[in-house]
Amino acid sequence: MFWLGIVFVSAFLVLLVGAITQAVWIQRHIRHPRTVMALIVLASLVAIPASLSIALAEPDHFVGWAQYVIGAQTIFLVGITVVVFALRHPTIQPPKVRRVLAIGAHPDDLELACGGSLARFADEGHEVMAIVMSHGANGGRDEVRENEARLGADTLEVASVSVQDFTDTKMATEMERMVKVIELAVELFKPDVILTHSEHDQHQDHHAVHLATLRAGRRSSTILCYESPSATRDFAPNYFVDVAPYMDAKVAAVKRHKDQAGKPYMGAKVLRGAAVFRGSQARTEQAEGFEVVRALSSGLGDL
């Protein structure tokens, strides 16, 4: 019984430590991650002491009880493995890979506005590239926010993210240089779809990035505008992406922006509430809405 108890102690310790250290991976790849995490933690906290008792018990002592515990632990380990595989977001090879270029003014803009969509596109096998036009120095610590932009993109599994150095809150004064940066990205990446800020946004940088994107993407066939927390009441989405399976990934990506954690629109309840509202408009559970500047059906495909 000693070695069997040690084996189970080791197994549940590995499971518990793995769940804690890989929490972001679980949030990104597993549906209902909070439930899965809770099951692993609770079961480990019960199983580890029970397994130690078995390992330390005298020979033939508590044999009947030990057999039941070992049986229950074996069933749980097999069951949690099956559950994790069953709840994984499927990786899909689409009939045609689309290139999606997402452009945001500040770190956290993309995660807040279209993080669920970007996670979905990445999981569906499309190529996703992001450009963040500033470090967001006026709203926080620039070196911290730049790193958080990369962490957020990694959480969503965006293939690449470029963080530019345009002046936070004064991007309209650097319009020509912004246009050139976006033009170069369009030329090199050749996106099928461009995502950017909406015209109906009260933040001056968001509006400036919107205008720069339209100029730089003037030859692009499909441009969609996402909804930022600063969007005005005139924002009127007419294209929706079902993000219900990806809201946990979106919330996890937004949480990487710890520098902005105190802002009310960063909370999980606010993010989920907005998705439910847009989902009701799209007749689905949760969605992110976009305004279509123009859209070519072959560009959007099955996005």
From TrEMBL:
SUPFAM superfamilies: LmbE-like
Record bears the keyword Transmembrane: yes
Keywords of the record: Membrane, Transmembrane, Transmembrane helix, Zinc
Gene3D superfamilies, per database record: LmbE-like (3.40.50.10320)
GO molecular function list: hydrolase activity, acting on carbon-nitrogen (but not peptide) bonds, in linear amides
Keyword Zinc in annotation: yes
InterPro entries membership: GlcNAc_PI_deacetylase-related (IPR003737), LmbE-like_dom_sf (IPR024078)
Transmembrane region(s): 6-26, 38-56, 68-87
BP terms from Gene Ontology: glycoside metabolic process
Protein name as annotated: LmbE family N-acetylglucosaminyl deacetylase
Organism for this UniProt entry: Glaciihabitans tibetensis
